[in-house]
Amino acid sequence: MTEMLKVNVDRRGGLAVIYTEGYINNQGGEEIARAAYDLISDDEKNLLLNLKGTKIVNSIGISILIEIIEKMLEIDGRLSFCCLTPTIEKTFHIMGLAQYAQIFPDEESAVSGLSA
Amino acid sequence: MARGAVLREVTLTLPMLPDMEIAASKTATALAEFMEMSSDKIDEVRMAVVEACINSFEHSHAGDQKVQIEFAVLGDSKPEKLQITITDTGIGFSPDDVEEPIIEEKLKAASKRGWGLKIIKGLMDEVEIRSGATGTTVVMSKSR
Fold first, then answer.
1. For residue B1, pLDDT beyond 70
2. What is the Cα–Cα distance from A76 to A46, expressed in whole angstroms?
3. In what order do the strands lie in the sheet with A46-53?
4. Assign residue B93 a region: left if phi > 0, alpha if psi is -120 to 50, beta otherwise?
5. H/E segment holding residue B99
6. Chain B partners of A23 at a C-beta cutoff of 8 Å?
7. A30 within domain boundaries
8. Would you place residue B78 in the very low, low, confident or very high pLDDT band (cuts 50, 70, 90)?
9. Are B120 and B100 in contact (CB under 8 A)?
10. B5-143, which class in CATH?
11. CATH code assigned at A59
12. Is residue B2 scored above 60 in pLDDT?
């Protein structure tokens, strides 16, 4: 009924940006996790999830993002987010995710903040 | 939960199949747009509807594998509130026994799930849960 989430990755020396397009449900979350774990296997420790192309998520998809955050904490890495809709950002705050993952309004500020 | 006159009403019966929650979210969006809700509030209603449907799909164990959703636009003369009632005929649960998820604990736990009710309560203005051996009804509303 809904299209599979599309995931693209851009690696730029010390920071890997994961772009999503579509609904982050359980399958979408798994797609993101697959991309994140591939990057972690390649020693990437600084991941940015750009959700500009995602307008809706569900809690099953977010629970998979929490697994990625847990993994990043284990390896002293970090997962950050940018370009969230106000509702997705509010949901992350309701869940307390913002304590463990930085949220940036746009990619430019994220790249600047994460490179500092 | 307070009621005004019902200005517009839609009822959906959805099979508990993957992604059917999106059909419910589209109906919620259409009615919220009719009410001229802000886009941020519409998104919040959409997300709460998705979560309520998923909770029912995942946890109700309803024999008929269906969920009924009633959308009602309420108000005295103009639309004031969108009320959404999600009903299943499952095994029910005790809302008081549902542990509130805490991120610090979830990060260490084997299961990271269990956020649905917390998200619904955080996004909607009013939420009421009635549950028993013959099923569960979640009534939630958001003002314009």
1. no
2. 9
3. A6-11, A16-21, A46-53, A78-82, A103-104
4. beta
5. none
6. 19, 22
7. yes
8. very high
9. no
10. alpha beta
11. 3.30.750.24
12. no
By residue count, chain B amounts to: 144
> Based on the structure, what is the number of domains in chain A?
1
Of A23, A59, A85, the CB nearest to B51: A59
Mutate which: A4, A27, A54, A59, vs B, most B CBs within 10 A: A59
Q: Is residue A1 part of a domain?
A: no
The domain limits of chain B are: 5-143
* Nearest alpha-carbon partner for B43 in A4, A37, A56, A33: A56
* Among B38, B46, B57, B103, the residue to mutate for chain A (most A Cβ within 10 A): B103
Residue of A nearest to B121 (CA): A94
Q: For chain A, what's the residue count?
A: 116
pLDDT in the model for residue A3: 67
Check pLDDT > 60 for residue A1.
no
Domain that holds residue A99: 6-107
Chain A residues contacting B, CB < 8 Å? 1-2, 23, 25, 55-60, 62-64, 66-67, 69-70, 73, 85-87, 90-91, 94-97, 99-100
Residue A35 falls inside a structural domain: yes
Q: Nearest 5 degrees, angle CA B66-CA B69-CA B73?
A: 170
**Predicted confidence band of residue B3 (pLDDT cuts 50, 70, 90):** low
DSSP B112: -
Whole-angstrom distance, CA of residue A35 vs CA of residue A9: 8
Helix A59-74 crosses helix B39-59 at what angle (to 10 degrees)?
90
Does a structural domain hold residue A116?
A: no
